[in-house]
Amino acid sequence: MKDNGLLAGSFDPFTYGHYDIAARAAKLFSHLYVAVAADTGDKRCVASLDERMEIVKKSVADIPNVYVYAFDGFLTDFARDIGASTIVRGLRTFKDFEYEKSLSQVYKSQWSDIESVYLISTPEYSLISGTIVRDLALSGGSLGGYVCPSARNLIEKIYGRR
After folding, report:
1. Is the pTM of this model over 0.85?
2. pLDDT tens sequence for the chain (162 residues)
3. What distance in Å separates the CA atoms of residue 143 and residue 48, rounded to the nearest whole number?
């Protein structure tokens, strides 16, 4: 595929589940942009944008065609600006599908050329969430198997102190 893909989120923090989706999506596109949301709406992030960006960059450093950016504003505007006409989303549960289906329709209403592609979570990562990782880090639990080893110390430092 020659198109550019876009995987976006708050990534508070970026988990193995996110990494799995990014690695698989990177095989489908010549370039995969991982976009870290500066404005997360009603969702209050624990880590700052700079901290989340650093975690994502460390996590995906081994995937050669992945590029990490911060974005602010509406996702379809950012996608158009960087030349990505496909938004990649991961699905863990049926509830995720319902939410993502609605988002896809909103994206399409804003830019008719945008498409959404969904990757089903690999079973071993389907139970991982940012909330679980934050709680583990805060309580001093092991993050092995939940986050990329390349970002693990940084995640423990950032989320363990709060």
Report:
1. yes
2. 568 999 999 999 999 999 999 999 999 999 999 999 997 777 789 999 999 999 999 999 999 999 999 999 999 999 999 999 999 999 998 888 999 999 999 999 999 999 999 999 999 999 999 999 999 999 999 999 999 999 999 999 999 965
3. 20
Closest CA to 128 of 13, 47, 30: 13
List the one residue out of 132, 126, 107, 124 whose CA is nearest residue 6. Answer: 107
Preceding omega of 123 cis (within 30 degrees of 0): no
Structural tokens at position 80: 């158009």
Beta strands in 61-135 (DSSP E): 66-71, 84-91, 115-120
